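This protein record is not my work; I was only asked to verify it. The record follows directly below this note.
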Amino acid sequence: MTIKAKDGGFVRLQDIATVELSAQSTTPACLQRRTAIFIGVQATPQGNPLNIVTGVRELFPELERNLPRRSI
């Protein structure tokens, strides 16, 4: 997933984070009694919380495009 593109260069999520597809527990995440996806974000000590939240929110549309379709 591309985080930033500038002057022909790219910063990808894998360049700045450890990305794993795994189950830490077998308990599904739930929100308001519906199955949800949990995304953990760990900031560095130098990370600005406002910038981190803004960046994560900007990624939501791309994350949603890559999710499997919901079955009702």
